[in-house]
Every structure is written in structure tokens, then in C-alpha cells.
Amino acid sequence: MFLAKSEYFTGRGIKGWLVRQFFLASGQLPIDRSSGKASEDALNTGVNVLSEGKLLGIYPEGTRSPDGRLYRGRTGIARMALESGVLVIPVAMIDTDKVMPIGSKIPKVQRVGVVFGRPLDFSRFEGYENDRFVLRAIADEIMHEIVGISGQEYVDEYASTRRARQSVS
User: Fold this and answer.
1) Which of 14, 84, 92, 99 has a CA positioned 20 to 30 A from the CA of residue 128?
2) Which residues contact 36 (CB under 8 A, 6 or more apart)?
3) Which residues form the Phospholipid/glycerol acyltransferase domain (predicted)?
């Protein structure tokens, strides 16, 4: 299962229906990212999935990279890991930005690389699920591991901030 933005499930017409069917058939869970309450519900959904012993794919950046570099991870991944008590396996997906560049309507057929890192155990932080400094440290450690296995350049800024700034200029 993967967490996916809810917009993938609400499109209209035949294209919207096809996209929705694809995401449902591939085990995607719709996540509303429009507000703090919506984000809280998304995190709780993720914790429930993990607590049931299921696998959950999470894109820690929270959105697609605008330029193929790796951006700062959101702390929700840390909270889910701590609350569910699971190991985190960093995964790097390489060249996805070339398959479906931002703004393109049709994906390009191209091979995507997938690299798995070593499992990360954050049990040493048990009880600190609400400590923002601990959550930031865990998210940063996960992103550092992804940099190590992907070779991507790291940008210590949220991808959504970079995209918003690019759309203004």
C-alpha cells in the first residue's frame, strides 16, 4: 500500500475514473493534505496500516521533486514509525522524474531504478512521538539514508516550498 494524494481519486470523466481505478487496484490510500486535521487523519491511517503488520510505502517528501533532487522529508513518517513501532526500510526510486515530468500528461516509457537500504530501528526514541526535535531528527536520518543509496543531491528545503517559489517566478 502507498499513501497517495486524494486528488488522484476525485477526477472527473473517463480519465478521472481510470486514474481512480488504477490507484484503488494498486492499493493506494487517498490522503487529504488540505489541512492539519486532514494530515492528522492521514497519519492515523498510516499508523493503523502499519500496526496491522502490513507494508506501507510513504514518500517522505510529501510531494514530487520539482527537479529530481531529494528534498527535506516531512516528520509524519517519523511519527508513524514511532507510534507503530516498525522498522523503516529506506527506498530510493531513481529516474521517476524522467518517466512523468511535472506538468506532463502522459508518462514516458523508461526504466526506473529501485534501491533498498538497510532497515532503520528508531525504538530508542520510544515515548517521544510528540517531540518535534526527535521527529525532525528521525526524518532527517531517513532522508540521509536515501541520499546514501540513491546518490541524489539533497536540498534542505521542502519540495513544496521550492515548487511554490518556482511557480511565482
Assistant:
1) 92
2) none
3) 2-96
